[in-house]
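Long-time lurker. I teach an intro course on protein structure, and each term I like to show students one example going from raw sequence to a predicted 3D structure in token notation. This year I'd like something fresh instead of my usual example. Would anyone be willing to generate the tokens for the chain below so I can use it in lecture? Attribution to the forum is fine with me.
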Amino acid sequence: MNTVEILKAARELIADEKNWLQGSLYDRRNGEDCYCAVGALDVVTEMDGDALDRAIEAIQELLGAGNSIVNFNDTHAHSQVIDLFDSAIARAESEAA
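-- Reply from a regular --
Happy to contribute to a lecture. Here you go:
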């Protein structure tokens, strides 16, 4: 998978707020798998270090130094996390073109 595909697949995992969580990478709630932003990336990349690093870098570039994806996920609303993924996807698509 390329970075755009990874970001899109991870976003899809947490698109529904019931499948998104804060404070943990992944969990199971009410029979549903739930993920934070990094947990979703872990699952999609099957913890492939290079692929995971590329996807994290694509998001981290938007956050800048001093803010981590985990911190952003845990301190912002679901809609803001989804917006972050959307921005990272758009940027990765434009860089790939």
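Some talking points for your students: The beta strands are 26-29, 32-35. The chain has a mean pLDDT of 94.
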